Each structure stands twice: as C-alpha cells, then as structure tokens.
Fold this sequence. Notes:
The strands form 2 sheets. This protein has a 4-stranded antiparallel β-sheet with strand order 3-4-5-6. By secondary structure, it is an alpha+beta fold. A hairpin with a 5-residue loop joins strand 5 (104-109) and strand 6 (115-120). It has helices at residues 3-18, 51-69, and strands spanning 28-34, 37-43, 74-82, 87-94, 104-109, 115-120.
Amino acid sequence: MHTTMRAAMGLLLVIGCMACPPARAQELTVHYIDAGEVSHEVYTGDMVPDSQTALRIAQAVMAGVEDEIQIKNLMPMSMIYDEEKAVWAVLFTEYGELTCGGAVTVHIQKKDGRILGICAGSE
C-alpha cells in the first residue's frame, strides 16, 4: 500500500474513532444451577475492572486484526483510563517502543467490555 494511502487510512481511522457514539451499559443476567434449582441475578459490576483485564482484551483484539492493519511486531506500550468516559485506551507500537507513526490504540468500554474503536496511525 502506498505511504500516502496508508496515511489517509490512518487519519480516517482516527477520525472515525473520535466520533464513536457513547456506550450504553447493558444488563448482564447470570444464571446459576444448583441441585436442579435455577436462580438468576443481574451482574452490576464492571466487565473490565482493571488494567490487566483491559490489556488481555486489547491483546486478543490485536491478534484478530493484525493482518488487516498491516503493522507487524506490535506490543503494548502504555495504557490510559479515561474516568470521565469510563474507557480504557491501550496503545500498541512496534516492538513496544516510542515511534513516530505505526501506533494502534484499542478503546474498551469498562462497563461492558465493548470495543469502541481501533485507531491506527501510520508514518
């Protein structure tokens, strides 16, 4: 892919990511079966309560899209939690080093674990 085209695609991804609609919390019902008795409970906790959970989810997402974004050797470099939006942002760079371009950020909703966006930049 040409450098100009990659840059344009990266810009579109970033713009698209910034325009992500706010997440809606979804209700999760947990079903328990104990000695033939079925009970139900609504789970009210966060699906992604901490940075380690966010990191594992982001790594799984990256494994699934690595070929699409055409940037190899991506490793997590940093993580930010936006308290106002309740969103984890996990930044991946080539070899986990600070670089100009070639970075990918995965945005994850804390409440329900939904992937809000994958923003990819290029040099």
